[in-house]
Design brief:
The chain is of the alpha+beta class and 573 residues long. It has 4 domains: 170 residues, 2-Layer Sandwich (Beta-Lactamase), CATH 3.30.450; 146 residues, GAF domain (Beta-Lactamase, 2-Layer Sandwich), CATH 3.30.450; 75 residues, Helix Hairpins (Orthogonal Bundle); 147 residues, Histidine kinase-like ATPase, C-terminal domain (Heat Shock Protein 90). It has 14 helices and 18 strands. The strands form 4 sheets. A 6-stranded antiparallel sheet has the order 8-7-6-11-10-9, sandwiched between helices. The protein has a 5-stranded antiparallel sheet with strand order 2-1-5-4-3, with helices on both faces. Helix 2 packs antiparallel against helix 5. The relative contact order is 0.06.
Length: 573
Amino acid sequence: MAKSSKPLKEKYSHLQALYRVTSVMDSSSEPKDVLNKILSEAVKLMKARSGSFILIDPNSGLLDIEASMGLTNKAQRIKLKLGEGITGWVAAHAKPLRVADVKNEPRYIRAIAGTRSEMAVPVVIRGNLIGVINVDSDRLDAFSAVDQELLEALAAQSARVLQNVWLVSQLRDKAAQLETLFNVGQTIVSAVSVEEVLRIVTEKACKLTRTPMCSIMLLTSGGQELKLAASHGASRQYSHKPNLPIKESLLGVVITRKKPLAILDVRESQRYHHLELAKREKLVSLLSVPLIYGTETVGALSVYTRVRHRFSNDEIKILSALASLSAIAIEKARLYSRVLEVEELLRTNERLSALGLLAAEIAHEIRNPLAVMQMLFYPFEHAFENDPARRKDAEIIAAKMKHMNSIVDQILSYARSTEPTIEPRSVPSIFEDLQLLVRHKLTSHDVKLVVHHGENVPEVPADKAQIEQALLNLILNAVQAMPQGGTLTLSSRLVQKRGKTYAALTVADTGEGMVERVRAALFQPFLTTKPKGTGIGLAIVHKIIEHHRGFIEVESTLGKGSSFSLFIPIHVG
């Protein structure tokens, strides 16, 4: 009875071991922990001295010890090739191997001293061999056929557990990547300078793909070369690398085909430029994806590893998604930079206009006393007929006064504003054009734009360019008056004033408002309340509306905001 119960006890013990392997899934979802627990059960069940759980590296093809018990540090660092050693033979043939005495086994490679017997079984998931469970002992013929059968069952159960654990780990990694990608998208889209966008993208690309180095190459203006625009994890020497020709380089393929490119080892590629630089930087595997904005490719986003790595489809997809966001952010930052340039150009034009206005005023003031001087000097011009020296002086003075008068005429002629070209203009179209001009400015300053079109407002007889210039000046001033953001209202209405019909175009803000002293002197040239203001914008606005036979009304409450209404007569007389 006792003899017949022994197999039952062994079978029960084996079932318990398999159950413990299955329950590992409930105790941990970390692949490393699961491998260690599975190996612990195998070594314990086989009564082995040491053991290892070995996985096949899909990139290098080598056998990596992922979990071990009883091995020395030196033994843990051993990397076998497929077919090499007992473990390598099992991995190459996907068959178990039990060796009673390793001294009589030519395939045996010594890992630790004192080993006498060894057994290894394959671990297979969905028909694909992914690794090997290996146990050894310091006893001869330590493992029986029953042990082998049990270890194979343990390996099969381990494969199912590992498959689930890896699936959970992959899903968790994907969720973390998507969350990171979302956060990265928000960060790079909110950046306003091209340099800041490029810096963030290269840094986050390394984080998303778990790679040590990233670079962004952008097309040059001629479209024939790629220039390094930013990098992360590279040396200073790399940041000064020469441009790449599109037609002859690997990254040129990414640009022309508009598709990702993965290279297992750039050191073995004949088309990879700057090979010596890549060796110094220890760059091995490359994944490059195109930066596409609309239908145009603007550059390439690339990540590098320093060991051979076969990039997965998931890695290609996540980097491609980041590249799509990056292309949008780069173009947005470029457009924002252009808007700032245009704004600065407008400010420069304001200064020039004001200088012209000032020059005209000075010339006008000089012209009156100059005319008086000429009239008073006229009798003296012929009073020195008998004195050649003084007559010569008088002729010179007369010529110089005439020259001065000519200069004044030239200044007045140049500074005199061109009369507006009056044509019927649609107020909604004027407002629409203004919205296109200022939308980035308002967004960057957290200003909300509200537009109201009044009923029955007809087309306005106006010079469209001049009216838009006047309204643009008022809008830019309003934005400056709301440093913490606010609401800007652009509205139109039809009113009766001063016995005439006017179209009133109003720009209102929720900014700081003005004191009465400032409001009273608003339209004087060079009046400003801003540290860097020119004080000439409102003078130009006033001059434009005067040319349109209209007028301006201003309302302002300190701390609540201001409104400027431009009244343009519907019937110009």
